[in-house]
Fold this sequence. Notes:
Chain A is mostly helical. Chain A has 13 helices and no strands. Chain A has one domain (73-328): MetI-like (MetI-like fold). In chain A, helix 4 runs antiparallel to helix 10 (234-263) and helix 12 packs antiparallel against helix 13 (297-328). The longest helix of chain A is centred in the first third of the chain and has 37 residues, at 36-72. Chain A is flat and about 75 Å long. Chain A starts with a helix and ends with a helix. Chain B has two domains: 34-153 and 313-357, 3-Layer(aba) Sandwich (D-Maltodextrin-Binding Protein, domain 2), CATH 3.40.190.10; 159-311 and 362-426, 3-Layer(aba) Sandwich (D-Maltodextrin-Binding Protein, domain 2), CATH 3.40.190.10. The longest helix of chain B has 20 residues, at 3-22. Chain B is globular, with a radius of gyration of 21 Å. Chains A and B meet through helix 12 of A and helix 3, helix 4 and helix 18 of B.
Amino acid sequence: xxxxxxxxxxxxxxxxxxxxxxxxxxxxxxxxxxxxxxxxxxxxxxxxxxxxxxxxxxxxxxxxxxxxxxxxxxxxxxxxxxxxxxxxxxxxxxxxxxxxxxxxxxxxxxxxxxxxxxxxxxxxxxxxxxxxxxxxxxxxxxxxxxxxxxxxxxxxxxxxxxxxxxxxxxxxxxxxxxxxxxxxxxxxxxxxxxxxxxxxxxxxxxxxxxxxxxxxxxxxxxxxxxxxxxxxxxxxxxxxxxxxxxxxxxxxxxxxxxxxxxxxxxxxxxxxxxxxxxxxxxxxxxxxxxxxxxxxxxxxxxxxxxxxxxxxxxxxxxxxxxxxxxxxx
Amino acid sequence: xxxxxxxxxxxxxxxxxxxxxxxxxxxxxxxxxxxxxxxxxxxxxxxxxxxxxxxxxxxxxxxxxxxxxxxxxxxxxxxxxxxxxxxxxxxxxxxxxxxxxxxxxxxxxxxxxxxxxxxxxxxxxxxxxxxxxxxxxxxxxxxxxxxxxxxxxxxxxxxxxxxxxxxxxxxxxxxxxxxxxxxxxxxxxxxxxxxxxxxxxxxxxxxxxxxxxxxxxxxxxxxxxxxxxxxxxxxxxxxxxxxxxxxxxxxxxxxxxxxxxxxxxxxxxxxxxxxxxxxxxxxxxxxxxxxxxxxxxxxxxxxxxxxxxxxxxxxxxxxxxxxxxxxxxxxxxxxxxxxxxxxxxxxxxxxxxxxxxxxxxxxxxxxxxxxxxxxxxxxxxxxxxxxxxxxxxxxxxxxxxxxxxxxxxxxxxxxxxxxxxxxxxx
Lengths: 329, 426
């Protein structure tokens, strides 16, 4: 019997024995003396008690506001007046028919597709490299991780200086130094959003690489060694050993990236304040503009609720698909 | 967004009441400093006032510190629970949230249309306070609602043109006094390899308001009075000014697309550090920072053909249900004292709307003269309640003009389209 089979055999025995003992001492006795539903209920009491405080807090800070937002979305509430009217689906009609309101919606969804893709594509190879053995490994890990620690506003303002269209902007100063023309950069309404994507990706790659790095370190070196002995190429080792082991981390990382990208607010605001024009206004900023600056809480609530649905659908789909991928592996 | 733009937005609503209260701008702020001081330092009246005073200010703590120190000296038993939100959007958002949650602090700055808060009964009527009774009609009228006065603002801000005297003198160029001269002066400097006007991302909004103020508003001050009742439209009243910006500033090359990415700091760099920009439009509060550049031979002049942009500054209001009413009233007592007023004036380089002897820097004397002669106004006063929504369309729209993403006609039409849904509310 091989070592692996022996190990599995012993694990099975231990699990079976433990389960039998537990059933014999506790649940089995309960099952004999009480109806099954009561036994199940009693078994769940400790878990429920532990969850209850969190559930209460969660309900107060998330569920109730969500219900309230849904209610306001059918009114013309302005945030101040206690008197407001029921307007039916008018706010939803406005959101879906106004170019000004729908543009940030579409832009945000695009943003939340591109950022996770780019971060993931860059973070995994980076994690593989940082998992190697070289002298400056710790320094490089810290360097890549640093941007994710800094305040988004600090990063935003720093990059505004770097990407400024003025001659005082760092990139333009360098371009002029080498005899090139200055570029519009953040003043270009077609380019500004891509520059924000670039900065967000740059700031996120290190953190997500750390997530993958943690998973990489759980891979049994014997597997890689065995593959190496069997003549697998570096790509094959990555494709058939490393990548499948990263699947759980990928599910979490991509979900975090999608949710974070959908809700992003501070960094784009610090970089462009939504400009030039409306070219970089994202959904959260748009909701705040409509709700608080323009005192149209009803309209902003409709935007928020639609946005919540989009986030829920996208995240649920992503987690389901990637969990299935994990299971297949 | 320029500081001037922010202040325009913040104060246009408050100023919208000036016209109603005072008839017109020309008599709105007259005899501001003629009368001798009437307010007395209330040091004797502070006995017994104690506890905590909650305060929300749109000036940060560092800027407010002289006032806070003065108050603490006069009312040593009152502890101030200070909070700050930066102007303008963030402040308004926070104030709206607090008002909506019925959790307003005892005293706070008011910038959003006063009648919305007053109508909801969220503000205390301050009209019986001694300090309020000596305010000029413009200043009390700015925050009047239904016979009461709901905010105390003893100061006025002025917007104008700071200019580099040396550049004008060395190049033999005279200050502009008309809109055409204004454009010509900018072009003259640009042709010399200098920059006539320091510009940034939000400058086009300032320029469209400047042009409207200098032209249509001068010939018909009530041109936009019916903008939210459907009697007139933005196409009729504002489109000509948007077209002027397009033709005279964008198409002529004065405003280049790259300026969309410039900030206030870039303007200061050009005007005060490198001294290659001849003019800089800003509010009177900009003087303090500019005065620090000793090599800059600074001057100030009114906006061509329109006096000064300006308005009664945002005021201080008291919650209708303050936790500590005595302390809140003490705050107003201090603010309206001679010491409080002098400190208030000094921290904002403002112009007073109450009897007070005070001095302004020599550079700013023309601004004081303009204010005291009533040569100040804010053309967008009629936007009142809906200012934020209109601003939210016009500000980015002016940037889209520069990037070629819209036209003056499209922008004016969009303003009217947005306005159409506001008309039923007014």
